UniProtKB/TrEMBL annotation:
Superkingdom of the source species: Bacteria
UniProt-recorded name of the protein: Uncharacterized protein
InterPro entries to which the protein is assigned, alphabetical: P-loop_NTPase
Length: 266
């Protein structure tokens, strides 16, 4: 029912950590997709502690696309399990493994984006880690299928100054789409020093995710650090659960509203 795109402006505010936290707490089946054009293998080497990807991931999907194979049936199959067992299936789609690989992907973003949207028919949502916006913006094929595009920031002046610059590029890109998805913010460590409410007011954008500031908890997700006892019951993961629930409900409401308007104007 949802494609959520997460990105950053400058620095490393915590996009990957936030994408993983949301995916582990998401209320439905979910695929978290590493679409960062600056490859790092952060999730495989970190949270998944070196799990073998068995050739699965973006490059294999690009290969299939070149051969004319439809991506829809492949995207979910290319995901690695993020968790063992559990009631809800959560998968991770590995990203680029070599520098410059994303340059060969220009024609694949759109079909890939469309197949993310099509996962809805399999009851799955997608959380995209799109990495930095960069001077050229994010791949339009991903933005075109997004239900919401979330810019991840820290609450420091330095992070917010960078966000201001790159948000302009992102908003221009969103305006160029036939149906622009809404933009929103994720504030990592709100209150250090600026609050989520202050940042929302400054940027005229809603803050839809506010991960708790917890270096040790974050390290479990970003670096595969040792899980503290009762990690999944910690306030850090609890915050992801409440933010994930609120975000998925927000997207469902927007979709319903859009469907009603489309029905009225049909
Ligand atoms: N909520 C949080 N509380 C404390 N530290 C955090 C939090 N979220 C992320 N971090 C830390 O911030 C650092 C960067 O995180 P992460 O790798 O997720 O950022 P990123 O924006 O994806 O960076 P990159 O652009 O390099 O991919 C990591 O050390 C991570 O543990
Ligand atoms: Mg990252």
């Amino acid at each position: 029912m949802a494609v959520v795109v997460l990105a950053s402006a400058t620095g490393s505010p915590g996009v990957t950590t936030t994408a993983l936290g949301l995916a582990l707490a998401w209320p439905r089946r979910v695929l978290v997709a590493d679409c960062d054009r600056d490859p790092s293998q952060a999730v495989q080497a970190g949270y998944l502690r070196g799990m073998d990807h068995g050739g699965r991931g973006l490059m294999s999907l690009a290969h299939l696309h070149r051969e004319g194979a439809p991506l829809d049936p492949e995207v979910w199959r290319h995901g690695l399990p993020l968790v063992e067992g559990g009631e809800i299936e959560r998968r991770f789609l590995p990203g680029f493994a070599t520098a410059g690989a994303s340059r060969l992907f220009e024609h694949v973003w759109r079909p890939l984006g469309e197949s993310f949207g099509a996962l809805d028919t399999q009851g799955a949502d997608v959380i995209v880690d799109a990495g930095r916006i960069s001077t050229t913006g994010l791949p339009l094929g991903l933005l075109a299928v997004a239900d919401t595009v979330i810019l991840c920031v820290r609450s420091s002046l330095r992070s917010l100054a960078g966000a201001r610059i790159h948000l302009t590029t992102l908003q221009e890109q969103l305006r160029s789409l036939p149906v622009p998805p809404p933009a929103a913010l994720a504030v990592v460590g709100s209150g250090r020093p600026y609050s989520g409410a202050e940042i929302a007011a400054q940027f005229s954008l809603p803050v839809v995710v506010e991960p708790a500031w917890d270096p040790r908890g974050a390290e479990v997700l970003s670096d595969g650090g040792q899980e503290p006892r009762r990690f999944s019951d910690s306030p850090f993961m609890g915050r992801f659960r409440s933010d994930a629930k609120a975000l998925s409900e927000r997207i469902a409401r927007t979709r319903q509203h859009t469907a009603v308007i489309a029905g009225v104007s049909a």
